Amino acid sequence: MTASDQATGPERLPVADARRTWAWLRAELRGRWRAGALAVLVGAVGAAASVVPVYALGRLVDLVTERAPGSAIVPVAAVILVGALVGGLAAGPGTYLISRLCEQLLADLRESTVARALSLPVTTLERVGKGDLLSRVSTDTAAIGKAASNVVPTMISAFLLVVVSVAAMAGLDWRLGLAGAVAIPLYVMALRWYLPRAAPKYAEERRAVADNSQLLVESMQGVRTVHAYRLEQRRLHGIGNASHEVRDISVSVFTLFTRFVGRVNRSEFFGLAAILVTGFLLVRQGHVTVGESAAAAVLFHRLFNPIGMLLFTFDEVQAAAASLARLVGVIDLAPAEEPRDGTGEPVDASLELADVHFRYDGAPEVLHGVSISLPAGSRVALVGSTGAGKSTIAAIAAGILTPGSGSVRVGGAALPPGSLREHVAIITQEVHVFAGPLIEDLRLARPDASPEEAAAALAAVGALDWATDLPDGLGTVVGEGGHELTTAQVQQLALARLILADPPIAILDEATAEAGSLGARKLEESAAAATRGRTTLIVAHRLTQAASADRVVVLEHGRIVEEGGHRELVAAGGRYAELWRAWEARTPTSSSR
Questions:
Q1: Which of 258, 308, 437, 446 has a CA that sits 20 to 30 A from residue 28's CA?
Q2: What backbone phi and psi angles, to 5 degrees, belong to 555?
Q3: Where is the ABC transmembrane type-1 domain (predicted)?
């Protein structure tokens, strides 16, 4: 079963099951088997070298009991020194190789997750919200990164030391090795008690963190609405409850872990007791020397730390595994569908939507056979009530959404969304300003644009004056943590990007809706300059945009109800005339247009 088969609910992205998560990890490790084998080999050499001094210590005990001369200590000391040096020299490279392998896996995981997130259908992101996705690419990635840089290298080194030490005890005498192995079932029992209880707890904790992140993101993004309706206390109460839930789950996880520690300590006690009793009996019967018995006891005692690391780091491994399952769940999501290959190349800049039907994720259909034709170089305005489907048509025309049926053609060619976006650019009322110098934000549209070209684009939309008046001109840092731009300035920035990108077809989806009356009039002039000579589809929030268009398409409930010129539709007295009269009543100055 893959992640896409087991969604956690309509409000969350799916989480991969254990089988799929381990399948992903095995596939990644198979692709790097040489690096993995080298890391294990170097680690095994280091572990073996660290056991040599304990063997030598046992021999030293025997020399003392045999009253050997002082010169006999020299070779033993030399062996201890060489073993310590080799072990120390191998420990660093071994840890480095393991850490590098883990970091490479993490880097690929992070890139794959972000790449898939960017290719997800818009409908998926709208359904699940941004908080869950953000928590996965931030909190979950951080949990895996901590495990990759610290926990996993420590666990592998500890595991190799345990294996070598148990083999060394068996090499002294098989009965000593068997006595040491008495603790293994106890350790396994402790793990079998802990893991089934801990895994659901960690998964629950990750979900609670995601829900908390969702609330925080929604509150920050909608802070103006929160203030407008005085929802501060209600939102804070919700965030507080979510935070308390995260805290309570974390406390229960820690309580469970402390009970696990008690079981581990009991396993250590019984294991060491078995070694000491067995060693005493074997020495008494002459099967082993005092030194060999002492060496076995020291070897087992030295395992307390590595075994403790192995067991106790399961705490963090469980959290990392839960996070890994969440990221693999994103990777396994199906990207936005790309329809069949296009039928030829566009011959001009015309845009046509033919018999387009669309529904959002199984919801009722929102577009019912919509057909719109825009000749090359024409300006067509799309108007209608809220919820009529205007923005959905704009997104389909821009290649952001894929219609359930019907086609989108550019210059007579039916293009898949990926190719469609090469010919069509869309500007919405929600424009993001990326953190960095203003000129670099402009160059998002064309990375090779010169400063002169960037300035010319700003001048064309009437934005050069305010841009050059910024503290550092076009080099001023804008976006998060930088100079804050007004709503109108942000839209002008988007229109300047449009000029630099220079697409043959432009779509303006209520691009002047948030600027206020005076700002909107200026933006309409900027938009006219940016779209001059381009085929333009305008989702008109302000009907003055419709009045200046070549043709007006009126949409209601996902169907076209009227189509024609502004004066023609006003004279017809239909739905558009009603909208125009309502617009004139709100904005008397519009009649002058």
A1: 308
A2: -115, 135
A3: 37-319
Across 70-79, 307-316, 350-359, the highest mean pLDDT is recorded for 350-359
Q: Give CA separation, 157 vs 22, 23, 93, 97, 423, in Å.
A: 21, 23, 11, 11, 55
Given this model, what pLDDT does residue 10 score?
A: 41
pLDDT of the residue at 74: 75
> Is the pTM for the entire model greater than 0.85?
no
Mean pLDDT, rounded, of the chain: 81
Sign of the C-alpha dihedral computed for residues 189, 193, 199 and 205 taken in this order: negative
How far is residue 245 CA from its own chain's centroid?
A: 23
Beta-sheet pairing, 351-359 with 365-374: antiparallel
What is the per-residue pLDDT for 432?
81
Is the pLDDT at 231 greater than 50? The verdict is yes
**pLDDT for position 118:** 74
Q: At CA 458, angle to CA 545 and CA 419, rounded to 5?
A: 70
Residue tagged 């109108």 (tokens): 488
Q: What is the largest CA-CA distance in the chain?
A: 120
Whole-number CA gyration radius for the chain? 34
Measured in whole angstroms, the distance separating CA 288 from the mean position of its chain's CA atoms is 58
Element (H or E) spanning 537, and its range? strand 535-539
**SS3 sequence of 110-163:** HHHHHHHHHHCCHHHHHHHCHHHHHHHHHHHHHHHHHHHHHHHHHHHHHHHHHH
The label of the residue with tokens 């296009």 reads 342
Q: Do residues 197 and 86 make contact, with C-beta atoms less than 8 angstroms apart?
A: no
Lowest mean pLDDT among 120-134, 317-331, 449-463: 120-134
Residues 6+ apart with CB under 8 A from 554: 383, 384, 560, 561, 562, 563, 569, 574, 575, 576, 579
In whole angstroms, give the CA distance from residue 406 to residue 352: 11
pLDDT of residue 3: 42
Phi, psi of 71 (to 5 degrees): -65, -20
Question: Which amino acid would we find at residue 532?
Answer: R
Residue 164 has a pLDDT of 82
Give the residue from 316, 321, 309 showing the smallest Cα distance to 157. Answer: 309
Q: Which tokens in the block code for residue 375?
A: 């000749």
Instruction: Return d(Cα 223, Cα 31) in angstroms, integer.
Output: 47
DSSP for 508-550, please give it: EESTTTTSHHHHHHHHHHHHHHHHTTSEEEEE-SSHHHHHTSS
Residue in this structure with the two tokens 């909208």, named with its chain if needed: 579
Question: Buried (b) or exposed (e) across 222-237, using 16+ Cβ within 10 A?
Answer: eeeebeeeebeeebee
Q: Say if CB 376 and CB 98 are below 8 A apart.
A: no
159 contacts 310 by C-beta, under 8 angstroms: yes
Distance CA(220)–CA(223), nearest Å, equals: 5
pLDDT at 430: 78
Give Cα separations from 490 to 285, 493, 496, 525, 562 (angstroms).
89, 5, 10, 15, 33
Question: Which has the higher per-residue pLDDT, 223 or 102?
Answer: 102
Q: Give the whole-angstrom CA distance, residue 346 versus residue 43.
A: 60
Report the first-to-last Cα separation within the chain, whole angstroms: 61
